[in-house]
């Protein structure tokens, strides 16, 4: 059994980039099936993403933004309480209108030290 509290999450691997900060709370070290990250994307930022090795599920808990699906052209409003799923190799764009915070689940699990490459993947 593993139990983490918010203060203990501060001791987890934290990735800080210009547009976001991501706390990697549960990684492949503990679980090969999925990893859990708490990610905060700063206000008025745009991220072009396409995860080549993972599906991603996000539960938005704070802030507002938009999710754009390049394949279908669909745009979705993101706000607290929204859950979205992006499949592996699905190009998408995340645009924030406010600081936006979400709980992200990646499957299979991430190692925890990954950073986005030029394609928006890891």
UniProtKB/TrEMBL annotation:
Its EC number is 4.2.1.108. Pathway: Amine and polyamine biosynthesis; ectoine biosynthesis; L-ectoine from L-aspartate 4-semialdehyde: step 3/3. It is an enzyme of class 4 (lyase). Keywords: Lyase. It comes from the Bacteria. One of its GO terms (biological process) is ectoine biosynthetic process. Belongs to the ectoine synthase family. This is L-ectoine synthase.
């Amino acid at each position: 059994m593993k139990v983490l509290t918010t203060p203990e999450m501060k001791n987890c691997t934290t990735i800080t980039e210009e547009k976001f900060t991501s706390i990697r709370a549960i990684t492949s070290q503990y679980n090969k099936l999925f990893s859990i990250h708490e990610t905060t994307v700063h206000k008025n930022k745009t991220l072009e993403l396409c995860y080549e090795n993972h599906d991603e599920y996000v539960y938005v808990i704070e802030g507002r933004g938009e999710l754009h699906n390049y394949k279908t052209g669909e745009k979705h409003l993101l706000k607290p309480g929204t859950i979205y799923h992006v499949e592996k190799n699905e190009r998408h764009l995340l645009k924030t209108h406010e600081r936006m915070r979400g709980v992200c689940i990646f499957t299979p699990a991430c190692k925890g030290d990954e950073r986005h490459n030029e394609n928006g993947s890891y």
